[in-house]
What we know:
The complex is a heterodimer.
Chain A: H1 2-17, H2 24-46, H3 49-52, H4 55-85
Chain B: H1 2-20, H2 25-28, H3 30-49, H4 53-60, H5 67-86, H6 92-99, H7 105-116, H8 118-146, H9 150-155, H10 164-171, H11 176-199
Helix pairs in contact in B: 4-11, 5-6, 5-11, 6-8, 6-11, 7-8, 7-11, 8-10
Amino acid sequence: MLIVIGLMVSGILLGYLFRERNLKFVQKLITWAIFILLFLLGLSVGVNDQIMNNLDTIGIDALCITLGAVAGSILCAWGIYKFYFSKG
Amino acid sequence: MRGSLIIVAFFIVGVLMGRFIEMPAFVTEQDPTLYALYVLMFLVGISIGSDKKALQALKQQNLRIVLVPLGTILGTLAGSAVISLVLKDRSLTDCLAVGSGFGYYSLSSIFITQYKGAELGTIALASNIIRELLTLLAAPFLVRYFGKLAPISVGGATTMDTTLPVITQSSGKDYVVVSIFHGITVDFSVPFLVTFFCTI
């Protein structure tokens, strides 16, 4: 965990220092890193029989967590809008 | 949207290859994934640090803009915590970690796989893709019943890129800056919150 946060913070500092340079290639590298990692995640799911046989429960759990998370954020957003934004 | 389809395609091709082709053991071991993750985090850091939009957005608006991402984060965590009571085989921290993806499915599923295994990682992938889809589909409905901030909050970490066009359409141009600021802030919180809930 410390390594991950350390790497991210040093990335942020570097990014800030070089913010006037053209850093578009970073976005491309991120996209490819994500492609590779999700492919690897797919591989480990595919070889794992326990996951492959339980895709229905996994899907339902995912949907439930999303609905809870979304409901919570809608309530907060509604309150903030009502009290701080809608009066202009 | 096109980007999300490509990402899902990479995942599905991976699943099929893992399922039907004999893989050498080193590909499914955790080590190569871990180093790829380190590289990714470093790159994400650079892209956040070099982003000028967040500070500009903050200068243009008054301080109430900060409340929007805060509300999203608190609401999401509270909602995920409540759901963990219903889902008996998922612990509180599992649900909080999945919820902390805020629609940023690529990064959160990779992280969660690393810390908690491929099963919860797959849940995170599915859950956060659903969140993004829901924003794209329900934005006009959300504005109508819950105000102009609702689609921004539901959009989570995606509101400065993939869901921004829909939000602009349904909440109006006045909310573009709020949406971008919200997306960047929530996006930034994902690696910290996910790692936090996976390791406590």
